[in-house]
């Protein structure tokens, strides 16, 4: 979502940019006017860039449009009609109610599971990233370089690669097939830690901390009352990152969980999808599609609401002041 | 995305299989110590009650579990059916290698039974009296679950093959329904010529389908004797198959669509896939997956390799087995027997399952069932005849699950490049032999 919205806003200039500035003297040389139009505040309009951005936008939105349209179709309508236009029957409401009632309403259970994993996993990961990032940015201690190397290295290792070793470890500890098997690994977010580290370095002036200490505030109070408010944009960014990662996590729960009662939405939808691959299975592509739509709605809402913070957080540290 | 995931799964399955093998080697004392279980033991267990965990995706088991609980109120059946196929086996192998959370009963497809039974992953059911049930089942499935005196599962369903064809398409282009594979190739040409959108079948490389076709053609590529294994795709039967199928591949007469995908369901519905040679369990999937083509399709006997030959083969089908590390063996066996040999069979047939029991297959009620979906055709007559004509000397590899997972990397190439089917099969053979040796099998 955000990847398209940010280039879109920077590339399309405001409508007034094309018109010559009202205050330009009538007899002024044209060259000067032009040059003024190119100022950093009013970048030159480029047809090529606009078209390219438009293409990328369409490319990004088509799957979403397909999902929206397909969610209005019955199983039969899906097979009969073209993917990018509506079928005769509008079955969206029926699909939604079926999604929530199919198999004794297991979808609701999966939704609540996902929420649990997000609140504890992504919430916890964010909290740990804040603590760690702040400490690494504002305190000096031996081995800091080593920590830096480890964190950078950890960013490069995809979580998927660690899933199997984690499974073997957790199965020894008897934690597999419990919610903890999904929550505990989600608590670690090297990228979040790195981001908080960079952000805290930029956002919190060391002088401010010194002032707080001189005024007699303890470290805990300094952290919560001075540092934390300054970190808000970074916190939202990391929270969004970890939320998306946990919400969409498929592989880790896949190998950790056996009991469908603990499935998150991703696993549940995949299970519904594979019903079509079994002998005598009930084919419910319409519910898989509607369920997918319902699954991404909360993420889209979260992004739209927090977009402002997200962008300022991402840009943190990009300009040296 | 899907492809990546399945690769990863394959990787895990592989890791677990190795772990499985290692566990089996480590414990040598679990062999013949089992005493026969009397029917009294099972009865006592049923009266005492308890909970059994069942991992099976077969949809008709829901009713069976409910009926079983009603009959034995003290027994609770926890049925977990959200996983199927690869994911199911990955979870099962992982549980067995972790020695934790192993289900009491697991659905295991016939092709995968060897893999689990050989690594001592499954309980021999003969001491429970399962060996005396041999006569109740058709030869194909029984041969798949039994190994000498040992019985590693009770057959749940079977998949004697038949040719499903879209009558509307055949009528429209006035093409005869093929009765031999040569006629089949002819029909493929005619249909595709009449409408380039129409293909005789979909095939993008499917291990289960190919092995079943070889089975019907009389090829016996796998010979298994304990840990001695032979793989050979160069017999006369295999040649019959590759000669014919190569024509279809070369002339691009097969739709490049994988089975069980939404494209596949769509093709079956809109007439672009004209036939489907598969197991007799297919009608239930037609009804829920292709509702828009109700009335278009019919069933016919499999085309023959030589006119008049009735030989058939099995495709798909599964058993219920008791993993060695599961608990409540008596209860678990009671459930399996109820579902696959007792009253459960009738309720499952009523819900569209295709039985493996001769009594059901031969009953008039079964044979005379009219399939509304097939325009009132009594399709079970065709299926039951096919079941009776399945050759029972076929066997799968004790590592068939792995072999099937590398099918697309070997034989699959014949569908997308200049590689010939025979070369693809040779590569599959070599890769299977190599893997078998690595696993400690004596492979020829």
Automatic annotation (TrEMBL), chain A:
Record InterPro entries: MetI-like, MetI-like_sf
Keyword Cytoplasm: no
PROSITE patterns, per database record: ABC_TM1
A biological process term (GO) from this entry: transmembrane transport
A single cellular component GO annotation: plasma membrane
Biased composition (Low complexity): 1-29
Membrane topology note: Multi-pass membrane protein
UniProt keyword terms in alphabetical order: Cell membrane, Membrane, Transmembrane, Transmembrane helix, Transport
Biased composition (Basic residues): 31-42
Chain positions covered by the region annotation Disordered: 1-42
CDD domains, alphabetized: TM_PBP2
Transmembrane region(s): 46-69, 115-136, 148-168, 180-201, 222-247, 283-306
Localization: Cell membrane
Family: Belongs to the binding-protein-dependent transport system permease family.
Protein name: ABC transporter permease
UniProt organism field: Streptomyces fructofermentans
UniProtKB/TrEMBL annotation, chain B:
InterPro entries given in the database record: Bact_solute-bd_prot1 (IPR050490), SBP (IPR006059), SBP_1_CS (IPR006061)
Record's keyword terms, sorted: Signal, Transport
Signal in keyword set: yes
GO biological-process terms attached to the record: transmembrane transport
Signal peptide range: 1-24
Record keyword Signal present: yes
Family, similarity comment: Belongs to the bacterial solute-binding protein 1 family.
Protein's UniProt name: Sugar ABC transporter substrate-binding protein
